[in-house]
Amino acid sequence: MRVYQVSGYREMSQRAADLIIAQILLNPQSVLGLATGSTPIGVYERLVEKHNRGELDCSGLTTFNLDEYCGLSEEDPQSYHYFMNSHLFSKVNIRKDKIHIPDPSGDIEKECKQYDSLIEAHGGIDLQLLGIGNNGHIGFNEPGTVYEGGTHCVDLDESTIQANARFFDNPDDVPRKAVTMGMKSIMLAKKVLLIANGEAKKAILEKSLYGPITPMVPASVLQLHPGLIVVWSAD
Ligand code: PGA
Q: Which sign does the torsion angle of CA 196, 163, 91, 139 carry?
């Protein structure tokens, strides 16, 4: 595990973006696992800036997003499809046919199996970007999630629903279910880049990185990942 403690959101974003950029420059055909939430927004901004300067070609990349809410259309501004499009995909030259985000609109079980098979068919994820929830979740793998699971449908924790209510006009509109890559899908990534920002994440990050490994703190299993890089800022 390599931990970079940096100062402020800007530096966290730049440091994490630099690592992703290095991954892309070393292997322009990289398979990236991507995350949503407030933490990675600055990382995506840095990638877009680099692309706009003509220094980052994303045309060879394949991407797999961690999760998506159930019950929201792709055009819904709260959906993760919309988030990824507005923060990254519409702003760089990633090929649309190489973008993958779980689609909970049809037969979810089938979709989940196909999602895992597709990741496998691409040789796995080279670099997985991750945020961390206040309850230690990664993706939407809430406390108590089994380690051996692949992509699946979950009931969101009450604490996650409350944390995400800030993005919705009406807290009652926060979806109660989502599809997420499983713990196993995440652990199979060759490298994992965990980012965290702010005093509020300090306690759960410390618990995850240095506390007991337990399904009750999902991110704690990352201690076993040989390619874990953590970039975090407490201020
Ligand atoms: P945040 O969410 O980036 O909005 O804090 C992280 C997460 O819940 O994984």
A: positive
- Among the listed residues 51, 67, 164, 197, the single catalytic one is 67
Segment 186-195 mean pLDDT: 98
pLDDT at position 57 is 98
Say if residues 76 and 68 touch (Cβ distance below 8 Å). no
Number of the ligand 1 atom closest to the C-alpha atom of 39: 3
Checking if the pLDDT of 33 tops 90, the result is yes
170 alpha carbon to ligand 1 midpoint, in Å?
Answer: 19
Atom of ligand 1 nearest to the CA of 201: 5
- 106 burial level (CB within 10 Å; 0-12, 13-18, 19+): exposed
Q: What is the mean pLDDT of residues 19-46?
A: 98
Q: Report CA(131)–ligand 1 centroid distance (Å).
A: 5
